[in-house]
Amino acid sequence: MIQLSSLPPAGSRLQRLVPANYADGVYQALEEPLLPNPRRLSDAVTQGKAGLASIHNRTVLGVFFGYHVLSDLVSVETPGCPAEFLNIYIPRGDPVFDPDKRGDVVLPFQRSRWDRKTGQSPSNPRDLTNQVTGWLDGSAIYGSSHSWSDTLRSFSGGQLASGADPAFPKESQDQLLMWMAPDPATGQGGSQGMYAFGAQRGNRESFLQALGLLWFRYHNLWARRLAREHPHWGDEELFQHARKRVIATYQAHSNFSFPLANPQNIALYQWLPSFLQKNPPEYSGYRPFMDPSISPEFVVASEQFFSTMVPPGVYMSLVVAGVVAHHRNQERKKLQKKGKESLKKETASAGLPVMEWSGPKERSYPVTIQLTPDRSLQVLDKRLTVLHTIQLRSLQQVNLILSSNRGRRTLLLKIPKEYDLVLLFNSEEERGVFVQQLQDLCISWAPGLHMTEMDEKELFRKAVTKQQRAGILEIFFRQLFAQVLDINQADAGSLPLDSSQQVREALTCELSRAEFAESLGLKSQDLFVEAMFSLADKDGNGYLSFREFLDILVVFMKGSPEDKSRLMFTMYDLDSNGFLSKDEFFTMMRSFIEISNNCLSKAQLTEVVESMFRESGFQDKEELTWEDFHFMLRDHDSDLRFTQLCVKGGAKGAGDIFKQRSGYRVSFITRTPGNSSCPRELVLPLKAPELGSAGLKKKLGKKSMGPSPRLYTEAVQEKLQRGFLAQKLQQFKRFVENYRRHIMCVTIFSAICVGLFADRAYYYGFASPPTDIEETTYVGIILSRGTAASISFMFSYILLTMCRNLITFLRETFLNRYIPFDAAVDFHRWIAMAAVVLAVLHSAGHAVNVYIFSVSPLSLLTCVFPNVFVNEGSKFPPKYYWWFFETVPGMTGVLLLLVLAIMYVFASHHFRRHSFRGFWLTHHLYVVLYALLIIHGSYALIQLPSFHIYFLVPAIIYGGDKLVSLSRKKVEISVVKAELLPSGVTYLQFQRPQGFEYKSGQWVRIACLGLGTNEYHPFTLTSAPHEDTLSLHIRAVGPWTTRLREIYSPPVGGIYARYPKLYLDGPFGEGHQEWHKFEVSVLVGGGIGVTPFASILKDLVFKSSLGSQMLCKKIYFIWVTRTQRQFEWLADIIREVEENDHQDLVSVQIYITQLAEKFDLRTTMLYICERHFQKVLNRSLFTGLRSVTHFGRPPFELFFNSLQEVHPEVRKIGVFSCGPPGMTKNVEKSCQLINRRDQAHFVHHYENF
Fold this sequence. Notes:
Oligomer: single chain
Strand content: 5-15%
Shape: elongated
Structural class: alpha+beta
Keywords: Calcium, FAD, Flavoprotein, Hydrogen peroxide, Membrane, Metal-binding, NADP, Oxidoreductase, Peroxidase, Repeat, Thyroid hormones biosynthesis, Transmembrane, Transmembrane helix
Number of helices: 43
Pfam family, one: EF-hand_1
Pathway: Hormone biosynthesis; thyroid hormone biosynthesis
Number of strands: 29
Distance between the termini: 85 Å
Radius of gyration: 46 Å
Membrane topology: Multi-pass membrane protein
Protein name: NAD(P)H oxidase (H2O2-forming)
Helix content: 40-55%
């Protein structure tokens, strides 16, 4: 016995007594027609009357004890891996499986586990394996392994573990491979009611459970008996001695035995003769040369032998423990607690909360209505901001319509010349309070208050809401412009003049002052609006009729310059005496400056007025006649001729005519007026001093040539006559030339990602060892594994794009010729977006996998994930939530998506602009991101972890770069000077650290010790490299910069030590450093994006003053700002540049964009005043600079086109833009359009703020 103790261990192959009979001689099973159909065979064998008694008096318990003994000897039920299925075809019309007679029903049968060393050739056919030992050793009682046996033990007194009741074993746990097939009668599954036995299928039937309980109690009985007999024995000794006695009884009891493969093993004396009706041979002794392995023939015969004797059921007496009728008659009463509190009558000044109905497709929103002492009705929002004011006049007819159904809580208020107000009150009582207040207010009026009632539905139909009136007014404006400007009726839209009463009432409404101001895009309290409204309101009723509006519009659209100047004269002739005094002229100028948000001092404004009077020869006059006023504007007759009235809601055709009739008011490029047939013909005016100078042309080796508008136009026209395909080809060539380094890097990086994806996809699609996972979810595994490899690479090497110190160093090496280090941040964003997209695809692939796994049987999942699942017979695999929320890869994957979503949202332009601290904090989640990535792949659910292969090198480089930054960050730097400049700009001047070298246009990251030592924000240096200190101009646009402005308010006594110190990290480089590599450079700054160019301009002028040799010969600086007050600090820097620029290197053009969105007549007058101020003082009225100030947005395409003419010998011009994305996109688009031509090539670098 000892010599053959390893002969047959658990998992050994079955011993063949006859040759295998496979279809191919190796492993394929025989099927029809060589063998009968299994379903037909089953029907034939099981035919007959059920419930017949055994003719040999065999009992059901005897049959199931045979199953118990068989489970101790053999177990071949475990499915094989990889999974192989045999399809059992069901005969057509089978009453159980094919009642619909489809004829295509099959039952999949999964083949059993086999020895992987077999099935290779006909000489080595496939052999099944036995999952238990072939010995009758009590495996069905104690399990087939030491671990199983230890799980069953209590380790106390040598007994097996029991549950709450000592007479029953403990319930099955996950570590036991207990068969937990659901109850076929009830469908109940799970571990409830499943006891821990040694036999895997010990809970399959109640009879097997009973036998397991018998041997459980028998073992514990022996353990207690031996403990009393041998009190000095420990737990292990008691358990082993009790086990030996139980197994000996199990083996040798004459009633319970079974023939092994060889009948000469153990003699069985009682049960086997009675069961087989045959006496086995007498036991003659142990023969060690006999192999006790089980044969396949024995497995098939014994299993089916017992199956033929299993009855369909066992009749049991109905034991009625008690039938308790639980009739839960729950009375569902709807308790409506109507707090019938006395309604508190609110006064008119306190306001009444209601809901305002805005339309059938609009949501009602809460408002507060308030009756004021001056007899006006105000509608307030939640913040008590006035939304709408209705002035109640004594001669008005006020119509009040009340709803008569649906709670009687709706009210419609119709007041002439206003849109209807529909209010929904909380109750009829509250509505009555408001109606009573309104009646008390109107009781003394002659027309009074007219009240009616109607259904709520009809009330809503009768109401003319604000949206409805706005639509009607828009159509009316279109018709108005169509009549004035002779626009085609089809282009203007049709006026819905139908028989509806509400349309007729809306068209007879008159505009209030607020609506008039809103149509012009101005504020109702502006002096210009008051003057214009007072002039147009001829009847003085406080409203502007459409006829009165039309009279004003006709003057602006079709009037002569004399008509327009007379209108302006009449507007500001406040006393209507026919003269315009200096005070009234001063008031007119102040209204212009007020709307433009300028803050000229009274002295400056007085100087402008005096200069205009003096220039016109009226210095001795105190009053002007209209003739004098028009004479003063004599130099701007063309400007007045093309002055329009900008009204919101005008016709589309009107807007087109505005553009055709108005010229570009810029000093260097204009469009030919009236030449609408050739919109691309460009002309250059005779005076263009800021584009270039004769000195520059001499430097470039060309003579100074006066531009010829006609010749220039024809040349451009000829270039643009090329075909569409040729233009696109030229555009593509210039694009490749501009971004060849970017294209190469993106191509290489993308190729690596695609290669990694293809490698994993090919491996799992065709080259991986058979693991069943490919056959189970082919598409899902390819998608998830391929994207996982690409994501691992992307998330690893994205760290290199944030190694700022390394990038700044490499910019100065030869690698900058091949790698665009300046685009590191853009490359970072591109990798991040691509990684997020791949992460979504990765999740989609796993969603497919999870769906397939959720509907796959456990027998299949056991093959796919042998370390996770065991086949315990349950037909119900884990649900989808188990995969997502109860596994390490699933939970970390969900957390990764959540972290990516948070980082992506807060890294967007919108959130970064409004909450930089939110971006800063959420982007530090990258530490959590990488920790989750490591954990996500370390579970090795499908493959061994590989993320570290990609991550290790970039992580080391990034860690070293962070250490370099950390060595600089922790050096405290004192702030030398701090100023609070207008427009929310904070100026900081601080010490320059020793050895701190930088270039103009570079940026740094600072942290203020007073606001936290770990929150760094990037800002561009506005100091020049030659200066001894560093300076920053920081605009308060977010919480952190606002707090920074507060903390650097001027300290008491001016003690510098009281300023909080800074941590400094940098400098870091951007593309704006390369401005000196071009002969001609164009700097375009918009918004806060002008800060890099402050340092560049100062550095340029300083180098030129020293006579340094520079390639750059001319700089054009275009400053685009919403208002001239927005960045007044830059005006000081430009003024310093203008004073030191003795060689005319810098040309500055300033564009104020806010004025272009306002009233065009006002803009014209501001333009006229600006030119007078510049003519008298040689400075701008708005900035105080010698630079030319323009109203509107710069026409970049026209400007770049003129540069090609001014600098014909320059083959490459650098364009550097920094500002809002909209502006940089316009610059990029203009560069692409110009680069279609075979002239100077524009190289564009941009940075968005």
